[in-house]
Specification:
By secondary structure, the protein is α+β, with helices and mostly antiparallel strands. It folds into 2 domains: 138 residues, Fructose-1,6-Bisphosphatase, Chain A, domain 1 (2-Layer Sandwich); 105 residues, D-Maltodextrin-Binding Protein, domain 2 (3-Layer(aba) Sandwich). The chain is built from 7 helices and 14 strands. The strands form 3 sheets. It has a 7-stranded mixed beta sheet, with helices on both faces. Strands 11-10-12-14-13 form a 5-stranded mixed beta sheet, with helices on both faces. Strands 1-2 form a two-stranded antiparallel ribbon.
Length: 252
């Protein structure tokens, strides 16, 4: 069934991407949410499209999205779709930074399908558990890189360990994972609780390309818990880089 799920996922993201581009061209409204982040009419329209398509095709599955009200109804369901309608809303709003639509399917708490779509550049990255990661049909593999996207306070520590720190990155979290998978970065550290929808869509893309994704303590990600967030993020191109980043976090 995962092959059919993958077709559904990719077709839905392409349709959502076309909608987002059309609304971006036509003009849209935006506002600040209670948490201080921005949301646009496009985020909400894409969210409705994603939920409609997935809900119609897989009515028994659970749903978790940044722009949909969360419900405990998802918890007993073995299959959960996790969506970020627009990751990088500020960049989308200002048209000066990357953005994407991300979605994943988790079964029994583990991501088994994962995809990010950048409509502006028509770049689709996807992965299936055990089947590898791909960008527009081309197999992805991580690379031994020293550049790590990091909070400012870790820059000096990373430099002392031989890494090249990049702070104030305009790349949203899902695309940071995809960038490591594509061989453009060696790793990324993100501090503080991170919502599942900011990680799930890129999680499997990175691990199937050879990388490692954990929380700040080195624990793996479990999805579809009552709290839809993870305790920070360490993402790396390979186990050796991950081990170095994890040790840095333990001593910083």
């Amino acid at each position: 069934m995962l092959d059919a799920d993958l077709d559904l996922l990719l077709d839905t993201l392409r349709e959502a991407g076309a909608l987002a581009l059309a609304m971006q061209k036509a003009g849209f409204a935006h506002r600040k949410k209670k948490d201080g982040t921005f949301v646009t009419d496009v985020d909400e329209a894409v969210d409705r499209l994603l939920l409609k398509r997935i809900g119609a095709a897989r009515p028994a599955d659970g749903w978790l999205s940044e722009e949909s009200p969360d419900s405990p109804d998802r918890l007993p369901k073995p299959r959960l779709w996790i969506a970020d309608p627009i990751d990088g809303t500020r960049g989308f709003l200002e048209a000066n930074a990357p953005w994407c639509i991300g979605m994943a399917l988790a079964i029994d708490g583990e991501v088994v399908l994962s995809a990010t779509y950048e409509p502006a550049d028509n770049v689709m990255c996807h992965a299936m558990k055990g089947g590898g990661s791909f960008m527009n049909g081309q197999r992805l593999f991580t690379a031994q890189k020293t550049n790590v996207i990091t909070p400012k306070r870790l820059k000096e520590d990373l430099a002392r360990k031989g890494f090249t720190p990049e702070s104030d990155s305009p790349i949203p979290l899902l695309l940071r994972l995809a960038s490591i998978a594509r061989g453009h970065h060696g790793g990324a550290i993100s501090i503080g609780n991170k919502n599942d929808w900011d990680i799930a869509g890129g999680h499997l893309i990175l691990t199937e390309a050879g990388g490692v994704v954990t929380d700040l303590s080195g624990k793996g990600m479990i999805y579809n818990r009552p709290e839809p967030w993870q305790r920070g993020l360490i993402a790396a191109a390979n186990p050796a880089i991950h081990a170095a980043l994890l040790e840095l976090m333990r001593t910083a």
